[in-house]
Amino acid sequence: MPIIEAKNLVKRYKIIEKQEGLLGYFKSLINPQYKEITAVNNINFKIEEGELIGYIGENGAGKSTTIKMLTGLLTPTSGKIVVNGLVPNEKRIQNNKNIGAVFGQKTQLWWDLPVIESFRLIKKMFKIPESEYRKNLKNFTKILDLEELLDKQVKNLSLGQKMRCEIAATFLHNPKIVYLDEPTIGLDVFVKENIRKFIKEINKEKKTTVILTTHDLKDIEDVCDRIILLDRGQIIYDGEKQKFKDTYGKYTLAELIVNSKNINIKNKLTSKNFEIIEENECRLKIKFKHDEVTIVKIMNDISKYCIIEDIHMRESELEDILKEIYKGAYRNGKNGDSTWKNAIEKI
Ligand SMILES: Nc1ncnc2c1ncn2[C@@H]1O[C@H](COP(=O)(O)OP(=O)(O)O)[C@@H](O)[C@H]1O
Ligand SMILES: [Mg+2]
The pTM is what? Predict the structure, then answer.
């Protein structure tokens, strides 16, 4: 049985329609005109216990809205959510025992207290047995490197230090499900790696189900097995990460280090088989499909205009693929209507 199920889930927000100019501003104060926007537009998914889900999509796609509904903070406009047998917004207190959540930079720790005191309060709130608390504290302190931070007041911690403590606090009561909405935003690479390692270890050890939204696709590459990709409130891909990469990541990227180049090669070339995506005096970035052209042929074409000194190649990564998708490479129709159905059916 899935631990999380969303069925025909919809969330609309009612917002006041802005009117132009100062007059419009006063008009909308006196007689506000409302309009509705659909943030989540009829989505369905099932998540099994222990899955590590990357919930991704552009800004405004509806990720946070979904997560707020899953945690019970928001009530769906229509549709149904069941999390660990409960409807979250109807059974908030019971549901809270099973879950942990991090929302960007909002803190759940007590600002003026030392970190360890916040942890003790959480222990009390969730009635965590002493032995379990000690075991977790010891383990989390080790993985997240918290030793030096426990006695410091939360308000005196740096962003990265705070987030490490935040993550520990979230997992302290052994939640079955953890929602992490942009937990790595603004953090340096070491802290990010620390957090990724932590999530993976706890998931392995305790089978914690994790739903992670992030703009850093390295988080997804490192942590998640399955991705759910949201586009303007609708799910456009839901499946294994590797399958997604295999299907969409048809491009190879090559970087050529060149010299003696004195023209713009991109303007000169007529080949449709490859695309120069970046060009400067000593570097060319090229995108091509293996089954359409070989790197030897490309080098042959390019070497008419410069001397090629070196070459680096890599297969396209999640980030490259998503850039293409966000640019609309898989959309068509005049108003950018998605034709994801076809694309998804191919997967
Ligand atoms: N409280 C709110 N009131 C009105 N509109 C909102 C509210 N929260 C989010 N939205 C709108 O809903 C859409 C989805 O937002 P959100 O769920 O925050 O997306 P994401 O987390 O993917 O960036 C956006 O168009 C956003 O402007
Ligand atoms: Mg968001």
Answer: 0.83
Atom of ligand 1 nearest to the CA of 59: 23
Give domain status of residue 340, yes or no: no
Query: Which ligand 1 atom sits nearest the alpha carbon of residue 40?
Result: 14
Residue of the CA atom closest to atom 9 of ligand 1: 65
Same-domain status, 213 and 285? no
pLDDT tens, residue by residue, 53-64: 999 999 999 999
Summarize pLDDT for 202-215 with one digit per residue, the tens.
999 999 999 999 98
Please indicate, yes or no, whether residues 127 and 259 belong to a single structural domain of this protein: no
Q: Is 59 in the pocket of ligand 1 (CB under 6 A)?
A: yes
Residue ID of nearest Cα to ligand 1 atom 24: 60
Residue 50, burial from CB neighbour count under 10 angstroms (0-12, 13-18, 19+): middle
Rounded to whole angstroms, the Cα distance separating 9 from 44 reads 7
Under a CB-based contact definition with an 8 Å cutoff, are residues 116 and 151 in contact?
Answer: yes
